[in-house]
Design a protein that fits this description.
The protein is an alpha/beta fold. Helix content is 45%, strand content 12%.
Amino acid sequence: MSGKRAPRKLVVLTESSTRCIMGMEQLCRELTVTAGELADSGASEVRWVRYHDDEYSQPDSLVTVLDALAAASAPAARLLLAFPFVSTNQAARITAALQTLKAKGCEIYWCGATAAKPGTTSPQSLCSQLGLAFREMAAYRAERTSPVMKGFWEKMDDSHKRAAWIEYRMRQLYMRQDQPGAILRDTLSELLRTTSADLTLPPVPDAADKIQGRLPAKTTQALLARYSAKGYPAIAGRTQVIEELKKTIACLARTEQNVLIIGETGTGKEMAAYFLHELGLKRDKPYLELNCAGIDDDQAESMLFGHVKGAFTGAIETRKGLVDEAAGGTLFLDELPELSGRLQAKLLRFIQSGEYYTMGSSVKKTASCRIVAGGQLDRIKEHIRSDLYHRLAESVIHMPALRELPDHDKIIIARNRADDLQGKIRSFWDDNENRPQHRPITQGDIDQFWDEIEHNKQLISSYCWPGNVRELYGVVKRSLTQAIPLKTMLDELLAQQSAVSALAEPDGIAPVIRSADDLITLAELQHRYVTRAATLALSQKELAQRLGCAINTLKEKLKPAGGVAEPELQPAPVDQPSPRSLRNR
């Protein structure tokens, strides 16, 4: 038997947008490519290709993949591409590769856009030049995408449900649930299997012993309804920082460990928790959330563990707790440090034994669910019991602050948020009509905003973003929906940042406060102030008089900062891991 690999009969190259997947589906139907042919890895090769040809896109950039196909000794019999447009800088290389493939007898079909953006070339011109078959890809239309991105699942028609299913599958691709080619192969095969919305999902990779076969259409639709209800969550970014975060989430999703997600406000802890559940083995089980901030002790206990009728004023009926409703699935407790010590003890007992008591009842109950908790580092350090911390922190995920991300990721996040706003209402004052105008945000608005992002990259990079991704999302939304130039908004933010920086002491006594991580204890602030005051030409007696304290108090404040006791976890005396150790877990 020869050791040579048989030549591929069919090669499919597609970008991962919903538009491209739909275009490839139509191209396959037109060319009578079957679901079975796509599902057979011996008969076809399916590859994810990317527009950019930079360090973050290798080895999947379109031009790199085409070069490799052209250099192969046994090229494909047919090559199908779904790619809206190509970079003008890459057009010559792509043309040369396609010309070589055609000369080797490869039939080439390209589904793309006829209208190109600045700096890009339409594939139609390349295909016309080389005599290749070209099919026009459906254009973005607000009336088509808006119901998919913003509507309720129950109100969608079949075409929108199919688009939402594609969006969900591509989110799994971006979150590294499986190899991109495997996800695309399964996605296209399933789309070709049926024209209805009764689509299914494959088993979680490498978990065939725990999940038998595909998820049925009814279960799949329940997952899609949850996905749409949460607003189509995404973790955007392409650099190593974000890629490592995605890989960590994908790996931990396969386990049943409790997870502690640490990050500043607005960093996306809720999205990380969602994907820990959605990419895992229990994705078809309940996923519930509770924000522990802003609710009193009794309300939090009632929501967590339930209550019986008459347990408190207003308890007119018995209600289940979230630990019971999330049985078999995941319960995400955001801002966990805001729970009282008493409730933390009850939660610890539940995590250890699965046992709990409903409010107003002495009957012991049991339940089992995965606990994922979130909080800010300083609040975790000061307000979470050490025993609860160690139970929760079987695994720790550190969500990076926006200012810690490479500039490239900030741009990707801004673009991603802009795309999500297509179809939303844009309100602005029309000077010509002398009245307010309202209309849906179009793809043209999005393209123009992308140009604004490109022209203001330096300003985006210069701002510290104390509100992190949530603040950036707000800026993008306000700019697009209110027709405010992005530069105007960034200039205002940078002016505010400069004003805050001017308030900080130039000698470093008081830090610039951009986020909770910049806060210091009052003891440390007093120590810095007194230490700096001690450099003045005053005796200790005179200095104490000026500061309004006794000499012994002055001497105490002059002790090194290391002598100031750190806040202890409850109950002490377990030492709390340092911020660095938390990040390195």
